[in-house]
Structures are given as C-alpha cells and as structure tokens.
Fold this sequence. Notes:
Layout: E1 2-7, H1 9-12, H2 20-35, E2 39-44, H3 47-60, H4 65-87, E3 109-112, H5 121-131, E4 136-141, E5 146-147, E6 159-160, E7 162-163, H6 165-172, H7 186-195, E8 198-203, H8 207-214, E9 222-224
Parallel strand pairs: 1-2, 1-4, 2-3, 4-8, 7-9
Antiparallel strand pairs: 5-6, 8-9
Amino acid sequence: MYKILSVGGSIIIPKTGFDITFLKKFRKLILDQTQQGDKFILIVGGGATCRQYQQALHAVSKQNNDVLDWLGIYSTWFNAEFVRMMFGKDAYEKVIKNPKEIIKTKKKIIICGGERPGQSTDAVAVKLAQNFQAKEIFNLSNIEYAFDKDPNKYKNAKKIENISWKDFRKIVGNTWSPGFSAPFDPTASKLAEKLHLRVSIVQGTNLPNLGKALRGQKYKGTVIE
C-alpha cells in the first residue's frame, strides 16, 4: 500500500530559495524507505511561490477566485515536475493531475499536483487516499505542530498533539479561498472526516522526525482523527 504524503510547496521551495542540502537529504530519506519496502505518493503544493503569483496577478488585474486557483494549480504542477525529475527513474513517468486516475505501475514513487479550483493539494491527497485505500495521510508542513490559533499573531496559541476532526474543523472553518494557508484545508478536512482518515501533521524539514513517522515510531506532530 502506498503512503500518502502531502508536501507543502514551501518545503520544496522556501521563501529564501532552494535548500539543496535539504532536498538531497529528503530525496535520500524517501529512496531509503523504498528500499525497505515502502511506496509513496507525494502530492506537491504551490507554497509561497503560488501565493506570490496570485497576489501579483490580482494586483495587476483583479481576478475571480477560479482564475487565481488555476494559477495556483499550475504552480503545483511545476513544483511537482521538479520533484518528479528529482527522483528520476525511481518515480512514475508523469505528474498525476487527476487523483481518481487508475495507475498501473511498479514504480514506488508517484508524484501529483493540484486538481481543480476550490481546494488545495490537501484535498487531492484525501482523494488519493480514497483511490488507493490508504487510511493515513502525512501532511508535511513548515510547522512542528498545529495550533489552536495562529501562533504568529497570538502569543497564547497552544500546540495540538491530538484532536478530533470535529474540533479541528472548528479551527480551520468551512471556507476555501485561493492562497488559503492552514495546516490542513477546510475542503480536505471535511472529506477526510467523512472517510474516517487519520492525518498526521509533521514538520517536513525535520527529516529525522519525519523518518520516525514513516517507520511507525514515536514522533512529534499533530494527529487528527
């Protein structure tokens, strides 16, 4: 069974630019795990680059949400192609853009991007989990834990280690908008709850901790179920 990883775009391309050392280590971690028998589906987000494009376009000529969403989706496809090429012959030969596509391959790594307006790549990850009958999604973010409120705005924000979908959805709300930033988006959360999925929010840049999560060992992060 494939392990589903929703990889935040800012993990791959931070605001400060590419971290080549990190990317090499991330690539090695995934490849090492495939040598142990793991198979992965990586859904790559747009990240800060996506939001910069959306903000610039809207500033130059005001656009509706569908147009801005499509621009974001194109940015995920570009990021996903970068990741696919990064894994070379070890990855499936094309970026998947339809999470319901039936894929027959012996490759242990499949790379995906965004699908359609009204959702982020988190929702694509949930649909892929449904398609591949996975019960858990690892959401790789730039934060160690989810919080009960924005820690950048509120000093009294509390980290969350375990939370139900009902309570988590109260935090993220029900409304999606282009460039929306949350540990797991509202559209994805609603579907994940319906499918009874477990989502683990893990800091993607902490590779030793991520390795523990992938191996089923004790790790730092937020579990939503």
